[in-house]
Amino acid sequence: MKTILGIGLLALSVLSAGAQTLRGEYAEARTCSVYAGGCHYSGEYVTAGREALLFWHVREGTWNGVDLSGLSVIAAVVADNNLAEPSAQRKSVLYIDARATAPQRKVLADLFAVRYAPVLGELQAVKTADIRYTREDAQINVSAPGVATLSISRYPCRHCVQPHQVWYQPLVPVHDAEVAMVKLCAYRDRQLGTVWQRSEENSVFVGEFTLR
Fold first, then answer.
1. In the chain, where do the E strands start and end?
2. Of all residues in the chain, what percent carry a pLDDT higher than 70?
3. Coil, strand or helix at 183
4. Cβ 61 vs Cβ 87: under 8 Å
5. Residue 19 pLDDT grade (very low, low, confident, very high; cuts 50, 70, 90)
6. pLDDT value for 187
7. What does pTM read for this prediction?
8. What's the pLDDT at 163?
9. Which of 121, 122, 130 is nearest to 171 (CA)?
């Protein structure tokens, strides 16, 4: 009887753990080239790279019994130094998909604020935004009118990038991270006291994320 009870409890724990899982696509655009020649990298390190747009699209998953599949989150992060610097003082704004219900918004806001607290730094606000996401072949497009635009072009293969010239790592844990080119990255909301626009540079990481 104890063996049967033990197996039952183990199965229940596995089921609960599986239910508390989100999986999806991630993109991160920095205001510096993450892939470049050494001189370019060193010149930018002290003058750029203090801002980033982070994007998550939940492909599937539930959290605390709430289904979050198909919803997206954007974070705008700024710092007083290059974001690669451990001492950089960060502040951020979270934007939750406007299509989310009130319970979904609460779960997403609480989860991302806690799990990514070191990345976000001082969270200034949590807002809703009309986030639109499309992915077709090598092209990824994210838009939130009045907030952000992110247009990304992935390389045809991993061998297109020389590993010794990739100078940074993604700000959050990512599976199979790849460098990509940003065609346009723009942040327009003045909540953080600054706006930015970058284009045609190797400043993006794309990959898959998992939250458990």
1. 21-30, 51-63, 66-67, 72-79, 90-97, 122-129, 132-136, 139-144, 148-154, 175-187, 196-198, 201-211
2. 90
3. strand
4. no
5. low
6. 98
7. 0.90
8. 87
9. 121
How many helices, marked H, and strands, marked E, lie in the chain? 4, 12
Q: Which amino acid is at 130?
A: D
Evaluate whether 77 touches 52 at the Cβ level (below 8 Å): yes
Residue with tokens 């970058």: 198
Positive or negative torsion for Cα 179, 54, 185, 81? negative
CA distances 108 to 69, 114, 124, 131, Å, are 11, 10, 16, 14
Distance of CA 137 to the CA centre of its chain: 20
Q: What is the CA radius of gyration of the chain?
A: 19
H runs (alpha helix) in the chain: 2-19, 38-45, 102-115, 117-120
